[in-house]
Amino acid sequence: MKRLPLLILLLAFALETTAQNGKKVSFNVRAGFSIGAAAPAGIPASIRKIESYHPGFRPSLEAKLGYRFSTHFGLATGLRFEQKGMTTEARVKAYYTTFNEEGANGTESVTGYFTGRVKTKVKNSYLTLPLHLTYHNNSAFTFKAGGFVSLLLDNNFSGDARDGYIRSETPVGEREDIDAATYDFSENVRRINAGVEIGTDYRISSGLFASANLNYALTPLMEPGFRSIDFGMHNIYLNLGIGYRFH
Amino acid sequence: MKSTVLLAFLGALLAVSGCIKPEAENMEADILVMTLPDSVLISPPSITNTSVSAFVNFEKLNIKAVSPQFTLTEGASIQPASGTPQDFSKPVTYTVTSEDGHWKKEYRVSLLQNVAPDNFMFENWTVNPDGNYYIPYELVETEHQNIWASGNSGFSLIAPEKRPEAYPTQRSTDASQGTYAAYLETKSTGALGAIVGMPIAAGNLFLGSFDGAKALTAPLEATIFGIPFNKKPLRLTGSYKYVSGGAVTDKTGKPVTPERQDLCDIYAVLFKSSPEKPFLNGANVLTDPSVVGIAQLASGASTAGNGYQPFDLTFNYKSEVNPDDLASFAYKIVVVFSSSKNAAVFEGAVGSKLYIDDVKVVTQ
Asked: Global pTM?
């Protein structure tokens, strides 16, 4: 990651020359932050109440190339380093999960139906390649729609369960009270995350612009075959930022 | 500004995710309480995940037509229906169905009309369906009495392995009489046990029941001690063999200082139960004011040689036993065996092995 600023600088110099001819090509850098969640497509019935939600500070940094192929339309792509995450606390009833711990004999776990409170901490870092179709009119706004592919750089999906009990294996299994138990599914976060993205840039001055992007991952957050949480989760994030357009 | 954006976004998120759904119907199917007329019960029923048993005064009921009432998980139903007369000459199987109808659990409900025996040969063993572990039972005039309990159900949850031989409390064919003896071995509970500050589980066996739900949060209270007893015990006798696992480790898994060798524990307690305190537990069994007499092994060190050695422990009485109260089952007895003496506070040595056989409570 240390090479990213250098790369941006090189790109900027390279473009300085090419972009002179007709201003079809543009280059911008943008810094921002993401708020959102790794959310199920519908809140499952086992989640009774969301007691707290903290998006945390999830920064992003992007370098992007744009190419205008007609008066109104263009294409844009780039590289983005971003974090996606949140911390939530929820009250759950018969929530299927696994508590696990790394031990001398590998990971040991208890699986079953938990009733109580669950805290979930997600913080994943991605290197993202976006590809957008851009629409330009005479206003200060530029509209973008397209997709993205992300490569997981750093993964954290963990949490704890408190003040409740678990039924071992099935809802009629042995009951065990739980004061506090931890889980860590970081290793089950998928390496690749891909989805769709829409957004807009608002030109503040000739160089400066503000932007908002909404992205939704079509691929599930977790690996195929992951059963320790019995509903699928998808990244859905809003990214807000400030950028500078070189041409 | 930021909070407005945040709220707007959360709203959008909820629109995508949908709102909190109506509460689903219960999936659990528990018997929470079994009720019988007070005059019939000698002691409160003990309820595990799949069994209910209670000592009843057989002079006050017709065992062929008893109608226990059951309180269940909200919305669950039971067959045969609560309050209908059943023949309890043998245990009766009840099936509880969850509110959502998808989950069923069978309970074996026993009303014990005979007084518990005073000699224990550990010949009869059954495998508990919940955790696949052995537990001894007693036969009194063909009545199957599940009066012994162990911490195995707590172990079943955190231990990765589910073979009967992997549990701390099991049976052995190395017996001093008959085919089997009780065999207790202190085991490691693995990584999960370690994170909850319970790195070891001693083999234990006692008269009473085990509240598996409390195994991780209040382990001393999980061992519920005592069965009704109507004779005055004088001595506890039997055969045992003990191989200490060596140096004791504490609840963090580190050796205690000064170093000491693991010991076993064998004791019996007679106590006077009350409606407020029908049972004792691991925290108060030797110290509670209701205790009237204790018989305890003086030294739990390893026994010499390979064979069994006898033990003969005298009950020391702190207060008089009232004969009328004794006759009306106001007293309870508990006999406890443990392969690590301080296992209640998770001190012990993995590999300590205690064999127990041919136990008698010699009464007046």
From this structure: 0.79
